[in-house]
Amino acid sequence: MKKISMIIISFMYALISIAEPSSSASGSISGVVTDAATTSPIVGVVIAVPALHSGVVTDTEGKYFLKNIPPGIYSLSFSFIGYAAVTRLVSVQYSLVTQDVALSVSALQLPTVSVTATPQTTDILTNTQSVAVIEGRDFEQRRGQTLMQSLENIPGVSLYSTGAAISKPVVRGLSSSRVLVVDDGIRQEGQQWGDEHAPEIDAFDAEKIEVIRGPGSVLYGSDAMGGVVHVVKPEVGGVEQSFLDGTVKLDGFTNNSQAAAAFILNGGGNKFGFRTSFSMRDAGNVRTPTETLFNSGFNEANGSGIIGYHGDDGFFDAGYSRFSTKIQIHENPAEAPEATPYQKILHDKFHLHAGYTLPCIRVEAIGGYQINQRREFANKDTVVPSLYLKLRTTTVEVKAHHDPFGSLYGTVGASLLQQENETLAEEHLIPASSTITVAGFWYEEYRFTPQWMFSGGVRFDTRVLDVKDDNVLGVVAQKKNYEAFTGSTGISYRPTEPFAIIANVSRGWRAPTEFELFANGVHEGTVSYVIGKNSLVPELSLNTDISFRYIISSLMVDATVYNNTITHYIYDKPSGLVDSVSTFPIYETSQADATLRGIELGVQYQAADFLILGVQGDMVNGKNNATNNSLPRIPAKKVTIGAKIVTEKFSGVQHPYLQLKMKTVASQTDVDPFEKETGGYTLFDVSIGGEIALGARMVTIDVSASNLFDRKYVEHLNRFKEYALNPGRNIAAHISIPFSVL
Predict the structure, then answer these.
(1) Are 323 and 146 in contact (CB under 8 A)?
(2) Is the pLDDT confidence value at 11 over 80?
(3) In 3D, which of 453, 517, 437 has the Cα closest to residue 1?
(4) Beta strand 101-103 with 72-79: parallel, antiparallel or unpaired?
(5) For the chain, how are helix, strand and coil distributed in percent, rounded to 5?
(6) Which of 66, 266, 479, 569 lies 20 to 30 Å from 408 when distance is taken between CA atoms?
(7) 3-state DSSP of 184-208
(8) From CA 377, how far away is CA 502, in angstroms rounded?
(9) DSSP state, 140?
(10) How confident is the model at residue 412 (pLDDT cuts 50, 70, 90)?
């Protein structure tokens, strides 16, 4: 397996090192950006070409010039504060392409492009998969106690939570190993099969988050059945900036007396760049409207560094990050009122990302190496972990984007994933094992006419799981082989420029985890005794989407209906028995076909210069086709209605806002027979913020109050729902202070 890794890495190096510069075989793009109402030029508009990891800004005459653009079809994004973002699809050959753009004044924070759903960056309107993007000031305002909390109000997305420190994304009713989290192009691997195992990514170390709703297996392989959550970090290198500047970010939360801070330093010049960050977070016990949850605090200490180079013919960046946290786990007070279990998680990640333009193709390669260490302790006085899992993961992916053949453009790629899993303490949830997965894919996009767009791809994965002897679990050494063909096809029809009708059919897959195959004992995290099933086969899904999207400067509408049929769905089947030692109920892993159906709706409307109205909502129904019972942990129906008052300036504050939200969640009574029903509730949130000048820089301040009236309620996806309420009122403050050294 190590030899295969070295062969692929050597191949990547050879492609980049032997190629001759190809700037002569390239084109360029130029144009002028103006105000749509006044026709006057706009200075400082950011024009980005995400596929090439490059961009420029307009000059004093509103002009821009992008040189040395390889032949291809690219999405260009034009963004400037106070204007609606615009995306243009541009075909580049070996000459100059002119693309003038007129921006319209708008207070809406509209998405620009997606770098997640297809190999080539695409705009949201023509993307044939359902994608949600949060970025810019909207992302800053949403930043929560964990990174995943930023996703809370996206239609089709919910959070599976364990206290304030652990939040796992639930996309269209699926979570854990059925939703893949990607950190800046690299799969995040950290025992994500566990209910209380959250993604180990710093909430401060991100620029935006994209969510694919629906299978993404063609590009990402196993585990992307429900969707993909892609955390995108800021670019380094190849940007116009002072040599050294940075940002100090401060967060505070009253509910659990939490304080958090981050120090970010970046700079560069002459196409080189760097970025480094350090953050800390410390939180006490969570408070509900009726009590304080004993032993529910946590702390973090995180850091990262990255260097990069962006030249005319390619780019290169390399980085390292560390995520370190200690999390206290609140137990049922009726059973263990003084229990003090806790977890320590350490996640180290190295990455290497490079791209180069060759004749007829643009090659891109990304590699990563991760070490995830999870230690769980029985009580606060214990220094020897009862559970210690260590996971080493190597990932390598090479993609080749070919030059357009008329209106046809696409990508071929290959990937390798290699893992070593160790169980190093007394408690054994999974046996020691190694995994290797090799895959290849082909994806093409074709524009029939300016109105019709087609995309489609296929992928083949083969996985070998090599399991070691484990006397504790009663597992003998063995090998398991899994293979899967997946594919997707979609079509976009734009009868008018701002309106699109999208249809998509996608096939996804997921190999069973070691826990599902070989578990045989108590799982403290879920208060259960679990018995795995050695003969499990991979899950296969077939998902159909139909979406309607409309985006102009004053209105954005995104509505989707979907049906996802999963063959061989893996679930824990209650045996009706109780373990005599732990007294926990015994569950046996089983398989059956399942179906999930749902609706998602998101609307933003600028009703007046000062007023933005919004509605977001979703509903999903999941059924076990063999038993006709509901699937467990299906989110309740919900709708959020909001109003936001905005203006350009008020009493020295730039872009101030006042926002009110009302979130109504229905009762969840359609549940698995062994799952607790939860009642409906309505919550009110309020937030206020703006920007204050600090020299030439702008300090941003955001203050919000969630659960404003301290309502008693239980979220259906709260793992404490059997014995505790959700948190009460919480006032949060976010302050971002930029500075310049040179």
Answers:
(1) no
(2) no
(3) 437
(4) unpaired
(5) 5, 60, 35
(6) 66
(7) CCEECCCCCCCCCCCCCCCCCCCCE
(8) 49
(9) H
(10) very high
Residue 7 clears pLDDT 90, i.e. is over it: no
Q: List the one residue out of 407, 348, 365 whose CA is nearest residue 126.
A: 407
Q: Which of 694, 668, 699, 700 is nearest to 681 (CA)?
A: 668
Strand partners, 302: 279, 323
Considering only CA atoms, which of 42, 56, 35 is closest in space to residue 102?
35
CA 573 – CA 561 distance, rounded (Å): 29
446 closest CA partner among 404, 495, 501 = 404
Which of 634, 740, 645 has the alpha carbon at shortest distance from 697? 740
Q: Mean pLDDT over residues 706-713, rounded?
A: 97
Three-state DSSP state, 331: coil
Q: What is the pLDDT of residues 433-477, one digit of tens each?
A: 999 999 999 999 998 888 899 999 999 999 999 999 999 999 999
Distance CA 129, CA 544 (A): 10
Q: Specify the residue for token string 């059924």.
A: 623
Q: Quick one: which of 599, 574, 601 has its CA closest to 671? A: 574
H/E run at residue 96: strand 96-98
Q: What is the DSSP string of 671-692?
A: --TTS--B--EEEEEEEEEEEE
Q: What phi and psi, each to the nearest 5 degrees, are found at residue 11?
A: -65, -40
* Residue 656 to residues 108, 255, 644, 686, Cα–Cα distance (Å): 14, 25, 10, 14
CA angle 69, 366, 6 (to 5 degrees): 130
Taking only Cα atoms into account, the Rg of the chain, rounded to an integer number of angstroms, comes to 25
> Model confidence over 396-405: pLDDT tens digits?
999 999 888 8
Is-contact 223 138, C-beta < 8 A? no
Strands 54-57, 72-79: pairing is unpaired
Q: Are strands 122-123 and 130-135 parallel, antiparallel or unpaired?
A: unpaired
Classify residue 300 as exposed, middle or buried by CB count within 10 Å of its CB (0-12, 13-18, 19+). buried
Q: DSSP readout, 59-102? A: -TTSEEEEEEEPSEEEEEEEE-TTB--EEEEEEE-SSEEE--EE
Which residue carries 């994209």 as its tokens?
A: 210
The answer to whether 480 and 464 are in contact (CB under 8 A) is yes
Going by C-alpha positions, the residue among 190, 588, 562, 197 that lies closest to residue 370 is: 190
Which stretch of 510-524, 555-569, 645-659, 685-699 has the lowest confidence by average pLDDT?
510-524
What does the pLDDT average to over 120-139?
Answer: 86
Please name the helix (run of DSSP H) or strand (run of DSSP E) that holds residue 18, with its range, or none: helix 2-18
- pLDDT tens for 502-550 read 999 999 999 999 999 998 877 765 667 889 999 999 999 999 999 999 9
**Which pLDDT score, from 0 to 100, does residue 265 have?**
93
- Specify which residues 525 forms β-bridges with: none
* CB environment 303-332: b (16+ within 10 A), e (fewer): bbebbbbbbbbbbbbbbebbbbbbbbbbbe
Given pLDDT bands bounded at 50, 70 and 90, which one contains residue 647? very high
Q: Which residue has the tokens 């296929």?
A: 458
Residue 688, pLDDT > 80, answer yes
Does an H or E element contain 187, and which?
A: strand 186-187
Are 419 and 393 in contact by the 8 Å Cβ rule? The answer is: yes
Asked if residues 324 and 302 have their Cβ atoms less than 8 Å apart, the reply is: yes
Which among 205, 213, 147 has a CA at the least distance from the CA of 180? 213
Which residues does 651 contact at the CB level (< 8 Å), separation at least 6?
A: none
pTM beyond 0.85, yes or no: yes
